[in-house]
Amino acid sequence: MKKLIIALAASAALLGGFSTGAQAQEKKKVCFIYVGSKTDGGWTQAHDLGRQELQKALDDKIETPFLENVPEGPDAERAIERMARSGCAMVFTTSFGFMDATVKVAQKFPDVKFEHATGFKSAPNLATYNSRFYEGRYIQGQIAAKMSKKGLAGYIASFPIPEVVMGINAFELGAKSINPNFKLKVVWANTWFDPGKEADAAKALIDQGVDILTQHTDTTAPMQVAAERGILAFGQASDMIAAGPKTQLTAIVDTWGAYYIKRTKALLDGTWKSEQIWDGLKDGILTMAPYTNMPDDVKAMAEETEAKIKSGELHPFTGPINKQDGTAWLAAGEKAQDGVLLGMNFYVEGVDDKLPQ
Amino acid sequence: MFEAILLTVITASTPLVIASLGELVTERAGVLNLGVEGMMIMGAVCAFAAAQLTGSPHLGILAGILGGAIFSLLFGFLTLTLVANQVATGLALTILGLGLSGQIGEAFVGQPGVKLPPIVIPLLSDIPFVGRVLFSQDLTFYLSIALVIGINWFLFRSRTGLKIRAIGDSHASAHALGINVIRTRYLAVMFGGACAGLAGAQLSLVYTPQWVENMSAGRGWIALALVVFASWRPWRVLAGGYLFGAVGVGQLHAQAFGVGLPSQLLSALPYAATIVVLIIISHNRRTTLINTPASLGKPFVPDR
Prior knowledge:
Chain A is of the alpha/beta class. Chain A has helices at residues 2-21, 43-57, 74-85, 99-108, 133-147, 162-178, 195-207, 221-229, 257-268, 296-311, 338-342; strands spanning 28-33, 62-63, 66-67, 88-93, 113-117, 126-131, 152-157, 183-188, 212-215, 232-237, 248-254, 276-279, 286-288, 321-322, 328-330, 351-352. Chain A has 2 domains: 2-14 and 24-131, Rossmann fold (3-Layer(aba) Sandwich), CATH 3.40.50; 135-253 and 288-352, Response regulator (Rossmann fold, 3-Layer(aba) Sandwich). Chain A is globular and about 60 Å long. Chain B has a single domain (2-121, 133-291), classed as ABC transporter involved in vitamin B12 uptake, BtuC (Orthogonal Bundle). The A-B interface holds A 1-2, 5, 8-9, 12, 36-37, 39-41, 69, 154, 160, 185-191, 193-201, 203-205, 207-208, 219-221, 224, 242-243, 352-354, 356-357 and B 1, 4-5, 8, 12, 37, 91, 94-95, 98-99, 102, 106, 109-112, 203, 207-210, 212-215, 217-219, 221, 248-249, 252-253, 255-258, 260-264, 267.
């Protein structure tokens, strides 16, 4: 029922989009599909900031209509298709769950360019782009190991997809590089966006004794709970320092703007190609929010790790690494292949959770 | 540990219970308002805005109640005065509420909220084990319990309650008896809106003191389902709301504790529990029929 409502709302929003689109026909339309609300304070907000940056940079050449609160699943296909039909030259679909829908619509509209965030399926007119969030997670893990008195952190996860599993593993590996006995408790909220449920998950983890919290869901509710209970936490997707001025250690901040501008320019001058782009800290597609609420030596360590990752000296997934059950995964010095990371469906040793299959 | 879990359960269940009780009264008067989600989110944004602007969370609560009630008047006007289809109007109310609240709330996004302070009841809060949890809560929890007791008495023990149930069961007969059906239904709809608004205020001032668009995240729909679940009985609303809240919070604790069950299964538990209880309730068809308002959702035009 709720999905129906959102779909209806989405359709209504689209109808609105049609009427404004007719006025400026010479401008190309670069369209965006969001899974959440553009003011969620996290994931979608970061994409929308990127879109605003793009609009500002190429204001005389393009317009950037967007559709927010599009649920993943069958409704997404309809929303993307309507976008394509309404004259968009390029459509950015900004959630993993839009993958299959984007593939289907891309087949139907060969002249429209599609860019899908965080997915792994592509086509001649469908590029994928992603950010190496795990680099930031690794730094967070190291900070957590230094700052946690109990050697136990809590991780609020959304859905058991490779992206999220990779983040959990990177966090644990970072923590273990400092404290080999570091443990990580994981709670799956099975939602990207539900402030109440995210807060409940945070409370459950804190009640179970974790003293550092990190999240892979979209709102600031867990940060707020952490602040209230007086423990430390990491922000996700956007700088969440406002929700926890004395709580946030750092945050992985998604900065999509430069990428959106680069790809739109390529579209405008006709050099756009379907690519599978996976940029990291060094490319500026993600940045770390200021390191706060920690002693100077921890801050220095975090900055050093960040610099090493940027220079390529350090790859978070470098062996020896065992899988959760103790079997060997990477030999000493061996680096994980991107393909393995993008399809990651297992935990590394030390994660105190059973991975939902 | 037990105290901590109970505390989380209370916070999670209170908005469901309050919104559900309001809808129960509306439906007992024979009006099906599917706009609970919309009224709830309007209550949440009005409450948050008022609390931010005045600095008083209590004025925020008041604004939430008023916001929900005023918003429900729109539904009342369309379905009671203009006799529009209740199901379609209710759905429209939800869509409108979600959109409108986003507009109103745009200025408040990202602002740290004001939390409604708890009210510690002396002596009672010293009772070992449950005292501290049950008697040092915030206003909304006490209101939710008072509403259960009050509505139960009002509907089944007072004259006006009898009239409301009569209207819900047969508006034509009630009309023939000289009861003002439309006016009573307006009041019932507004009461439902006020409760949904209060539930929304709890979301933005107690549960997660912040404003995010769509923050009700489907709780209005759960509240609606709870009314049927409770077969239109206030005490069962309380039980159902807490069952739902407890299973939902319990599964998160089970995960954090590491029970090793798949999280998708655990996440589905509250809904599975609801279905099981519904099956048990509907097993006895007669009692179900007795409790269901017979003219629920049917339009009424006087003097026809």
